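Contributing new records

If you add data, match the layout below exactly. Sequence lines come first and carry their own label; structure lines follow with theirs. Keep one chain per record. Anything else will be rejected by the validation script.
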Amino acid sequence: MKRSLFHFTWFVLLTAFYFIVRFCLFDLHGMKQYPLILFAAASFVIAVSMVLNARLLTVFSFGGYSVGFLLGHIFHSEGTDPGGGATDNIWIIWLISFICFCVLGVLCQTVPKYLRRITDKKTDVK
């Protein structure tokens, strides 16, 4: 029950941030579908982390979504394509940030367990 409540709380926070980004901050990014796609990806990561009991991955998934949006907004650049259409790279920065945070979450979740296992094997040999 505690495990589910932890992950559910982070999912509620993610959902709240999605609605803020999608509707309240729409003028900042102008994307309708992309926030939903990343929200679905982050929700999937949270669901998988709940099954695997990977708390850090849940937190890093939310962090990747929220911090990725902020980094995208800070570092984006606008331009025009050869046909004269407007381009913006906020979605690339947001996606790369999200992926990096998720990978970092997996590493932070698994590396300490792996190191503990190696250390325990070394102490058992003596």
